[in-house]
Automatic annotation (TrEMBL), chain A:
This is Cell division ATP-binding protein FtsE. Its main location: membrane. Homodimer. Forms a membrane-associated complex with FtsX. It comes from Salinisphaera japonica YTM-1. One of its GO terms (biological process) is cell division. Signal peptide: none annotated. It is found in: Cell inner membrane; Cell membrane. PANTHER family: CELL DIVISION ATP-BINDING PROTEIN FTSE (PTHR24220:SF470), IMPORT ATP-BINDING PROTEIN (PTHR24220).
UniProtKB/TrEMBL annotation, chain B:
GO terms for cellular component: cell division site; plasma membrane. Keywords: Cell cycle, Cell division, Cell inner membrane, Cell membrane, Membrane, Transmembrane, Transmembrane helix. Belongs to the ABC-4 integral membrane protein family. FtsX subfamily. This is Cell division protein FtsX. It comes from the Bacteria. Part of the ABC transporter FtsEX involved in cellular division. Forms a membrane-associated complex with FtsE. The chain crosses the membrane at residues 45-69, 197-217, 250-271, 291-315. Pfam families: FtsX, FtsX_ECD. The keyword Disulfide bond does not apply.
Length: 221, 325
């Protein structure tokens, strides 16, 4: 099994009738990093939500790391999500907790021992270059720093697969390039990564595969 | 750069160590959660304090009523024991015969004490007590009969006392035997009513506590909607998300019970003066009883239980409605 993500003829029609994905088949190899692009409303976030089991496909099959998601019951969703790292445009940090506690959350959820949590949170914060900020509250950080906290939180569990939905959407070009370099580094340590983005310039400056969506259809590159 | 299979091995090892730590981790997580939920309460302390106060008062009311009824019951029991039967003798009966009857009655197993009060003694006492001395002298002959005061044995049931009164009334030389017990029966009935009322009020206020806790928790969940969505996205199970809210429910119940104890204590202090006078008029034989250790324990358990129930019936429904989008 070499694919970490495999879509087979996936259709997603939202209640209300909107066809967001139309017979999409694609795959991401284990250890690969790819960009997902397309106009606004093309279906990028929908595709990500199917992988995160935030939405279920109307038809077709989604297989992640060998698991057919149709067979993951509602009760099993939490366990499944623990193995996927999700990163969002609007960071989704908890503002009443310190940077450390935000990054520790996935480990606390998994019930890890305190000693391990400290070690792994420090390692994750070190990776994103924010070790000195661990006691601060997110509100006191810049947008780029907040996004890096979000990335640290996503990788602290060492997920098989990292999904980032417009991680640089709110950032200036320089910070965006920083974040992309961070993803590159994470990919070099073996993590499979899929990044949805509008930022064509940035994508073209990097030599990774592009998956292009157009009105819910996959565009063959 | 590690190979894919090397990565997998590392993940397996991590999973194993996680399993070994999980028992300790679980206990630690619960302890942390218990304190964290207390922290949450204190962060919104005005709302929490109000909830706890309302719970406290709701718990204090039936408990207070219960204590009052319990003490009144004992008081009524004491009054029952101090009951006396007045046996009025025929007017023409000689004092010696009256004294003889009083002595005879003492042989009855149901009788504790008897005291003969002759017509003359009765008149003297009445003159002294009423101040109508001159008027009574003017009356010429003594209108009062001889009386035997009969004290039934303590712990004689009210029904048996009734039978004794009837038996005494039927004796040849007795005009009438009477026991002014109606007020006591009325008091017993009122106490019975109060005791039932304390149960009904207790049930109603318990329901109120359940709803208060439920509503507070519902608002709490509403305020933390975004946080709950994030936790679900990060793979938190329903049980994990529920836990701090359930602990909050327990804290509300426990702290509410403490407030109830405080309220009861304050009431006792406030009423202490008049209680002391009442007690001393009974030669100290009647010490006022509080809730007692078992009562306190029950109150705390009730608080915890109601807080828990209020939480459980709210939390599942509210959390199911929150899903990341
Ligand atoms: N929950 C929903 N209910 C109904 N329609 C939806 C829902 N979510 C998305 N859509 C529709 O599905 C289509 C694809 O949406 P999606 O969010 O996947 O696009 P996107 O490529 O992420 O766009 P953007 O770049 O603006 O984020 C859009 O037309 C959108 O209006
Ligand atoms: Mg989107």
């Amino acid at each position: 099994m070499t694919e970490i993500v495999a879509f087979d003829n996936v259709v997603k029609r939202y209640p209300g009738g909107k066809l967001a994905l139309d017979r999409v088949s694609l795959s991401l190899a284990r250890g690969e990093m790819a960009f997902l692009t397309g106009h606004s409303g093309a279906g990028k976030s929908t595709l990500m939500k199917l992988i995160g089991l935030i939405e279920r496909p109307t038809r077709g099959r989604v297989v992640i790391n060998g698991t057919d998601l149709a067979r993951v019951s509602r009760r099993q969703v939490p366990r499944y999500r623990q193995r996927v790292g999700l990163i969002f445009q609007n960071y989704n940090l908890l503002f009443d907790r310190t940077v450390f506690d935000n990054v520790a959350l996935p480990l606390v959820i998994r019930g890890q021992a305190h000693r391990d949590i400290t070690r792994r949170v420090r390692a994750a914060l070190d990776t994103v270059g924010l070790l000195s900020h661990e006691k601060k509250f997110p509100i006191t950080l810049s947008g780029g720093e907040q996004q890096r906290v979000g990335i640290a939180r996503a990788v602290v569990n060492r997920p098989h697969l990292l999904l980032a939905d417009e991680p640089t959407g709110n950032l200036d070009p320089e910070l965006s390039a920083d974040i992309m370099r961070l993803f590159t580094r994470l990919n070099e340590t073996g993590t499979s990564i899929m990044i949805a983005t509008h930022d064509i310039d940035l994508v073209e400056a990097m030599r990774y595969r592009r998956i292009v969506l157009d009105h819910g259809h996959l565009e063959q590159a | 750069m590690p190979t894919a299979s090397g990565q997998r091995d590392m993940r397996t090892r991590l999973a194993d160590s996680a399993a070994a730590d999980s028992a300790k981790g679980w206990a630690a997580a619960h302890a942390r959660c218990l304190l964290e939920s207390l922290g949450r309460l204190s962060r919104r302390w005005i709302a929490s304090a109000l909830t706890i106060l309302v719970i406290g008062i709701a718990l204090a009311l039936p408990s207070g009523l219960f204590v009052v009824v319990k003490n009144m019951d004992r008081l009524a029991g004491q009054w029952h024991q101090s009951v006396q039967i007045s046996v009025y003798l025929d007017n023409d009966l000689a004092p010696e015969a009256g004294q003889q009857l009083a002595d005879d009655l003492r042989d009855d197993k149901r009788v504790d004490k008897t005291q003969f009060v002759s017509a003359e003694q009765g008149l003297d006492e009445f003159k002294k007590a009423s101040g109508f001395g001159a008027a009574l002298d003017a009356l010429g002959n003594n209108p009062l009969p001889g009386v035997i005061q009969v004290t039934p044995r303590a712990n004689l049931a009210p029904a048996a006392v009734g039978e004794l009164v009837a038996a005494l009334g039927q004796r040849d030389t007795v005009a009438k035997a009477s026991l002014d017990q109606a007020w006591l029966r009325r008091l017993t009935a009122i106490l019975d009513l109060l005791s039932r009322a304390s149960w009904v009020i207790g049930l109603l206020l318990s329901a109120a506590v359940v709803f208060i806790v439920g509503n507070t928790i519902r608002l709490d969940i509403e305020n933390r909607r975004q946080e709950i969505e994030v936790m679900k996205l990060l793979g938190a199970s329903d049980a994990f998300i529920r836990r701090p809210f359930l602990y909050s429910g327990l804290w509300y119940g426990l702290l509410g019970a403490f407030v109830a104890l405080l309220v009861l204590g304050v009431c006792r202090l406030a009423l202490g003066g008049s209680l002391a006078t009442l007690v001393s008029s009974y030669d100290g034989a009647l010490a006022i009883q509080g809730l007692g250790a078992s009562g306190v324990l029950w109150l705390i358990l009730a608080g915890l239980g109601l807080g828990w129930v209020g939480c459980v019936i709210t939390v599942n429904r509210e959390l199911a409605a929150i899903e990341p989008r």
